## 1
Amino acid sequence: MAQLLIQSFLETLVMVGISMIVGTLIGMVMASLLVLTQPLGLWPKPFIFSLLGMFLNAFRSIPFIILIILMIPFTRFCVGTAIGTPAATLPLAFASSLLITRVIEDALNTVPKGLIEVGKALGASNLQIIMKIQFLEGLPLIISGLTTVSINIIGFSAIAGTVGGGGLGDLAIRYGYQRYDFTLLIFIVIILISFVQCIQMSGDFLSTKLKK
Amino acid sequence: MSVIIKNLKKAYNVVVLKDINLDIPQGQILGIIGKSGAGKSTLLRCLNGLEQPSAGTITIDNQSFTGVSDSQRRRIQQKIGNVFQNFNLLSRLTALENVMFPLKLLKRSSHVSRSKAMELLSLVGLRGKEHTYPNQLSGGQCQRVAIARALIGDASLLLCDEFTSALDFETSLEILELLGNLNKQLRITIIMITHDMAVVREICDEVCVLDEGRIVEKNDITSILLHPQNMVTKSLIRNLVNKDLPHSLQDSLLQNPTAKSTAVLRLFFSSQAAGEPIISSLVKKYDSPINILFGNLDHIRETAFGCLIIAIPYDVSKMNAIMRDLDHKDVSAEIIGYLPQQGGSLWPNS
């Protein structure tokens, strides 16, 4: 049983870890684009801004389980199969990049206008303002946002079990629910609770430390 | 840096600035003063490149700052230092890193900019605070960091936007003194906008009064304070130069003299005249008892100036001679009214 638990935990870790990393990278680019192109942004392009916003909102309104099914052809095209941990990671990464985009966008927008004007008055380029002022100042908020998203993604990863994604959630459904192995279920819940606690605590710690 | 502004206009939906002309020579400290909404912030934002004027030109050090390419504008912007009302320091950088920030944007070697930043921090009096974060510094210290940051790009023009509003009076004075010293040491031109005449009076050479988007008055600081022409200027300095009688006494003043009345004169004197025994020489020469009703001596930068309100028993021939005499001594005198009784108590109810 222990081996089963460890293996599932590692699967969860891989799914959540990869989708968070990919999601953060995509989220950073998309959020920067949104912040730049917004009507009062540094590079106002209302058309790009609303198009991107509509895309994000449309996909965010699809329940994750339906998103997985909807993405099956694309997943099959990319991964070669629609079943298994790698196949489950793709929709997870997609969902997390949607969430992370909004988190980063909000964090960048909370940076006081005065600081952005410092950059402008210094003759900084738009990219410098985004990277060296907004990302720098918004980092504590981004970290706490990413903490929340990663906990959400752990929840999503259980749903990914429906396409044989593996991981703790999948294990809980197969052994706990379908076979009614209550002891295992309790263990899974304990592991999940401690895992989430660890993430939340380290996220809080990092965010506070970065705030200065 | 010298700054020349010609026919500057700025309009959004409404006209904010109209027909601004200013010529600011290198090394001058110019105060732009006005009530809120007068357009002074917009004028400053045109100067630091945060806004583009709708019409007119700005020339900085013989280089055009308006109607030029972004890269040309950025090159000039890098030579302009900005000090903001709310300091605008990056909260996640230390004092030293904040000062180095402009050079980091220019990708200068961090070794050189580091030693330069250290130097500037000690110049603004913050030695030992290099590794402190802004929220552990007081408002005055934050503004000092901001000034050091404004200077690190070898700025020769400093634009200050209501930079004392967030500071208490004592701290404001310290910061103003610092700016005055920097102006003397480094010969930098300083343009500051404020609604507070007290700020302007501390260090400005020239003052320009802005109202409803226009320059309504521009003069050297002494003239502005002693002989304001415009209503707005007068209202802005009302609290600063006290030259009016208390209301109780003002109400008892008469417009025309009677046989036994006392003339009330207001005298303005500045610089050398402030050092002379004007009153006692008048008393001796005309053998008139002179009563001082109100007096005020002050300094504007290096110039001493004063205002006295005196009462002299009214006598037509003597009066004309006295006025002539005062005029010779560079004292501007005006009769502001007459009190009915001669001698005795001038103050009602006393």
## 2
Amino acid sequence: MEYINIFIKSAFIDNMVFTFFFGMCSYLAVSKTVKTATGLGAAVIFVLLITVPVNYLLETYVLKEGALAWLGDDYASMDLSFLSFIMFIAVIASIVQLVEMLVEKFSPALYGALGIFLPLIAVNCAILGASLFMQQKQFANIGQATVYGLGSGFGWFLAIVLIAAIREKIKYSHIPGPLKGVGMAFILTGLMGLAFLGFLGFEL
Amino acid sequence: MSEEKKSEPLFSKKNIQLIKNPLNQINPVTIQVLGICSALAVTVQMDNAIVMSIAVMAVLVIGNVLVSLMRNIIPGRIRIIVQLVIVAFLVICVDQILKAYVYDVSKSLSVFVGLIITNCIIMGRLEAFALGNKPWASILDGVGNGFGYGLVLVVVAFFKEVFGSGTLTIPGFEKFEIFGNATDLTGLYAMDYMNNGLMLLPPSSLFIVGIYIWVQKARNPELIGE
């Protein structure tokens, strides 16, 4: 039950795109057709599902205040949390690289679909943002962190596929010239954000 | 830099363009659509927006200079990692400084200080400009893009704060109550004026940026491409 709650909360209520604007750059750049949007969305889910738990372990056993207690009493009072930015981004960059190599080796079909998007993801704010929020929320165990990663990824996937579908249709509408393209995408995202606000306070 | 001075003056026309263009023609946020995440999220209050712009500008300028100085010794294949490490190092410094001197703002910026690392403006400028240009030009480019980013943030924050909570918070000054005090019912509030709650919600920044782009492109028709 708790897991479902975390999933719903991270996917719909605290949606990455509509509430925190994470990953807006790729969200706007890659949402011109549904097909590529689906590919990028799937890649984001995939990477979040792996990086959030790994960073959770890193946070709990290395970075948090007192996290190094397992090394002995001398280390029990160490607080390395100021290093978290550089550790998280290093983990993310290397995992993205690793995932890319593994996918290429074991599933060429998936690699064909995700291929070009994987390297892009290393600098997608949604990935680092999810890890930083995971650090802030202080989840009780790794299961919750994983579900959080999955939920955030799903929320992002949903957002980019929806906007891509709308943008495909709106290409044929009469929009004032200066508003065409990015400007309209912003306003559309705002309207979708308003709709998503309806989930506020929703709990199982 | 001394070599630069010999060949052209410090503020030659080309160098001035480096600062001026990002403010309008190639604005990093509205035209190149980079670094939106933080631009939209930290704009509920003016002081957050200003501190965030200064932080981004500092990281951008210093990062640009460092990468530009090292541009001939960074191996091409691992340049992204090198840039990430430089930026992450600078962001850690900025984060510690913010925590030490403006703790309240740093608290309300929360994870967005860390997200400067993945701010596309910074990676984009390092990759596209600093890797191929001299340090002085890179400084100017950093300042220009930092101002371009800050300009959008300040405009969005202005509308959000003034119409959302009826105040204006500028760092170093007392909170400025534009329409009077909402709880004591003075000024406009005495005449049943109400703050627009929508302005405080996330979607409103998207609307404001959308309209900003609209106005900007309408005034500069040459920007309407595609």
